[in-house]
Amino acid sequence: MDDEEAELEEGESDIGETAAEAPGRVASTRTLVDIPVIPFEPPTTGSGHDIGEKQGKLRTAILERVSQNELAKFKEALKGHLVTITLGFFLWKGSTKTTNTRAVKDLDNQDLDNLMKIIFDVLGKGQQGLGLLEEDSYICEVYAKKELVEDQAEEGLRIIIEEYEDEEMQKVLKEFYSKKTKVSA
């Protein structure tokens, strides 16, 4: 097994743990950011209504868990880097008295793409964005997983951002954005 496969398997086992079992932060030479947002009901784009409000709630939840100092360190660590993003969504199964659980009440809204969209927006530079990612195009690899959790206190999400290495892609993107900046100036 090569190093990349070993890292992938290691990352998958971390993200597959329940929120209660997951460590506070991942220790890896490639890991630049690790933000557990638990407990928290993961927002979804759903029907497309109130997306700004949902982004705001996620942004607030992250800022409650990450200090301004940590946020500044994350921004510096991510600056100019291509990234791999691993997302874990821990969806509360609901109680035995609940017949319409959050995880399955609206299967269309719980698609991974609907869950991921708001996170990418909040990581970026938009109105509700934290400015961690310079551009969406710096995201080169994405892993996502959703799983049901028994306890509402375990509900939430986890964002892990690791460095992705591709010198050619990085060169092309830097050239593109430097030209774009010159044109708009």
Structural class: alpha+beta
Taking the alpha carbons of the first and last residues, their distance comes to 49 Å
In terms of DSSP E residues, the strand content is 15-25%
What's the story with the biggest beta sheet?
4 strands, mixed
Order of strands in the sheet with most strands: 1-4-2-3
Low-pLDDT parts are: 4-13, 16-23
* Secondary structure tally: strands: 4
Domain tally:
1
Amount of helix: 25-40%
Rg over alpha carbons: 17 Å
Walkthrough of the structure:
- The protein has five helices and four strands.
- Strands 1-4-2-3 form a four-stranded mixed beta sheet, sandwiched between helices.
- The chain is α+β, with helices and mostly antiparallel strands.
- The radius of gyration is 17 Å and the shape is elongated.
- The longest helix is centred in the last third of the chain and has 18 residues.
- It has one domain.
- The N and C termini lie far apart (49 Å).
- Helix content is 38%, strand content 19%.
- About 10% of the residues have low confidence.
- Helix 4 links the parallel strand 2 and strand 3.
